[in-house]
Amino acid sequence: MNKTLLEVFTDKPLIDRIQKRLPKLFRIAELESSRAGKIGMQVGSLRENVIVALLIYKFGEENVNTDFSIVEPEIDVEIFGQPVSIKTITGRSFGGVKLIWTVDAPKAREFLTGYYPRYDILLIQIDWGRKGGFYYIPVEAQEKLFKDIGREKYVKLPKPGTNPRGVEISKEALVSLIQDKETKVIEVGWQKSEIDYRPYQRWVDYWSEV
Q1: CA atoms within 13 A on the CB side of 83
Q2: For 74, phi and psi rounded to 5 degrees?
Q3: What whole-number distance in Å separates Cα of residue 135 and Cα of residue 153?
Q4: Sign, Cα dihedral of 97, 144, 178, 174
Q5: What structural domains and CATH numbers belong to the chain?
Q6: b vs e for 76-108, b when ≥16 Cβ sit within 10 Å of the residue's Cβ?
Q7: d(CA 178, CA 122)
Q8: Each residue's pLDDT tens digit, 122-151
Q9: CA–CA separation, 16 and 100 (whole Å)
Q10: At 101, which helix (H) or strand (E)?
Q11: What is the pLDDT of residues 162-209, one digit of tens each?
Q12: Which residues, 6 or more positions from 147, have their beta carbon under 8 angstroms from its beta carbon?
């Protein structure tokens, strides 16, 4: 288990800060990626940036690395050299969490054949108007479940003829993982706050600089 990540889930002032500020920051990410009231795909990257910023706040910029060659699609950040995968999901169900984004069926099958859990996961469950969670799922829990239920039950491939854009952790596997005794969670109340957000204002400010 990653003792560094465990610090996030035992630091009481930081936990309070996460519970208070994460909904607001994720709401800003939604507003920034919305057009005509619809949230765009880029919201995932913005949410990831929010979590990376949290890790930088906690551990210092010199210890959090995002500037590396993307040879492994599951790695989003390194903390003290340890790779971590960041995932977000919206709603009460735990279905739909992607392991890899691809629309190519042969690549999806190839990924399934070679897949094995290798990285700690930070999973944020967003459920507006209700309570969700910020989870740390250690790689040890993933490895154990993978061995227990097998590759075919752990990984969900896209259905033929559909365009879901990725290979997923099965809902059954993810529910088991968040209930695992090794998994840590910070409960988050997802209440939307009123935000006067003007997406172009910062760029106007830059243009206005002397």
Answers
A1: 15
A2: -85, -20
A3: 22
A4: positive
A5: 3-191 (3.40.600.30)
A6: bbbbeeebbbbbbbbeeebeebbbbebeeeeeb
A7: 11
A8: 999 999 999 999 999 999 999 999 999 999
A9: 32
A10: none
A11: 656 788 999 999 999 999 999 999 999 999 988 888 888 888 999 999
A12: none
> Can you tell me which residue has the tokens 């790779």?
83
In Å, how far are 1, 57, 107 from 192, measured between CA atoms? 33, 23, 39
Q: Could you give the dihedral angle defined by the CA atoms of residues 181, 186, 190 and 196, in that order, rounded to the nearest 10 degrees?
A: -150
Query: Among candidates 27, 30, 86, 28, which has minimal Cα distance to 55?
Result: 86
Neighbours of 63 (CB within 10 A): 14
CA distance 173 to 87: 15
Helix (H) / strand (E) containing 127: none
